[in-house]
Specification:
Low-confidence stretches: none
Mean pLDDT: 94
CATH class of the largest domain: Alpha Beta
Oligomer: single chain
CATH topology of the largest domain: Cytochrome Bc1 Complex, Chain A, domain 1
């Protein structure tokens, strides 16, 4: 991305608008981001942000339930939404001459979303079923247990979907109060990328959004995770097809000067990624963990996971243990790879190769307008949209000494949480 192409505008109601013209195809993507996620939730209300996201697909008085799907499909578009720890986002990608539909939808449901009691109960059933489906996955049990042990004070402790007891107890008024608190122009960012003329687009945006009330000041969470004081361990014993291992190390947020070096360390261990949110599949067979664990048949799969976050979060290593081996063996092998970097660092040749791979992943991830808008919005939520323009420079400035230093600083026993999933009937 080029810096001058991403433009910033603020409406009188404090809605931030970010635009980027891309004329390669007659397509436009429209994203609305809200600064609210599971990070903003308190005990007893876990999962409320995700549930509110579901409710915004249930229509408004002007566009009743089911009408949104038909309108977008009829106009040749796609739309969706998601909730994360740090934000909630919705998007429509449409032919360029249908952009007004996306603006109309998002302006309408920012203020007028239906929270009909019968729809609330329907979604309670849907979300509880989703939770039950997740509970059938061994990785879900392990990941939830590791995060719960790693975070004792910060809301990153709890899963985005929430806890079953909270979901059963949540009321329609709880959901609506959350919506009214966080779904306001002063807590939102509108991102548009595609085939439009900026001046004309801004006039259309003002038509749909300028008269919406700004809303009161938004409460911000103040929780901070204390500095870890020693290793934490959890073991899950449940039915499952294999033993799994996950270890997390508390690392800084994405605004910390060490962020780029930790991202490169992630690529060294697990393979290159585009540094967006969500668990991307790392398929780089030249990565150290793959060679050390899969090539030697200790594990059937392995990798690392690190993503930008607003507050300090986890740098994770994971593996699926092969049937002829034990989780302790795989844990020792993972830690050996960490120790090699701590003691010996990485070579100039390896660092050059890794930076090239990360650069390719970021470039590939920015080819489509939908992905570009996602990156712009994500970085504005976590820091500033300008990071999309400087990220490659940050990564290319990382030296091999930086990679070794952050491995020594953050991937330590003191900062670790280690989890084992042991399938019942095949216990160690």
């Amino acid at each position: 991305m080029t810096a001058h192409l991403t433009r910033s505008h603020t409406l009188p109601n404090n809605l931030l608008v970010l635009t980027r013209e891309v004329h390669s195809a007659p397509v436009v993507t429209c994203w609305i981001w809200y600064r609210v996620g599971s990070r903003n939730e308190i005990s007893g209300r876990t999962g409320v942000s995700h549930w509110v996201e579901h409710m915004l697909f249930k229509g408004t008085p002007e566009m009743p339930a089911g009408m949104l799907d038909r309108l977008v499909a009829r106009n040749g578009g796609i739309f969706n939404g998601f909730t994360s720890t740090d934000f909630t986002a919705y998007y429509e990608t449409l032919p360029a001459d249908r952009l007004d539909l996306a603006l109309h939808i998002e302006a309408d449901r920012m203020m007028n979303a239906n929270f009909a009691p019968e729809e609330v109960e329907r979604e309670r059933t849907v979300i509880l079923a989703e939770l039950e489906e997740h509970a059938n996955e061994p990785w879900t049990w392990l990941d939830d247990a590791v995060r719960a042990a790693a975070f004792t004070a910060h809301p990153y402790h709890h899963p985005v979907i929430g806890y079953e007891a909270d979901l059963r107890a949540m009321t329609r008024d709880d959901l609506y109060a959350h919506y009214q608190t966080y779904y306001m122009p002063n807590n939102a960012v509108l991102v548009l990328v595609g085939d439009f003329q900026t001046g004309d687009l801004l006039r259309r945006i003002e038509h749909f959004f300028a008269d919406l009330p700004a809303g009161p000041p938004v409460p911000r969470p103040h929780a901070a995770e204390p500095e870890p004081q020693g290793e934490r361990r959890v073991t899950i014993r449940r039915p499952g097809p294999a033993a799994y291992l996950q270890m997390g190390f508390l690392v800084p947020d994405c605004r910390n000067p060490d962020f780029a070096a930790v991202a490169v360390l992630d690529a060294v261990l697990g393979g290159a990624r585009s540094l967006t949110f969500g668990k991307e599949v790392q398929t780089n067979r030249s990565a150290r963990l793959y060679q050390a664990l899969v090539e030697t048949e200790l594990a059937s799969s392995t990798g690392s996971y690190f993503h930008p976050s607003y507050d300090p979060s986890l740098f994770e290593l994971y593996a699926t243990v092969n049937v002829d081996h034990q989780a302790d063996e795989v844990e020792a092998a993972l830690l050996r790879e960490v120790e090699k970097i701590q003691q010996d660092g990485v070579s100039d040749l390896e660092l050059t190769r890794i930076i090239k791979q990360v650069r390719a992943q970021i470039a590939y991830g920015s080819e489509r307008v939908t992905r570009q808008a996602m990156m712009i919005g994500m970085w504005e939520m976590l820091d500033h949209f300008g990071r999309t323009e400087t990220l490659l420079e940050e990564l290319m400035a990382v030296r091999k000494e930086d990679v070794q230093r952050v491995a020594q600083t953050y991937l330590t026993t003191r900062r670790s949480t280690i989890g084992h999933f042991i399938p019942t009937g095949n216990e160690e």
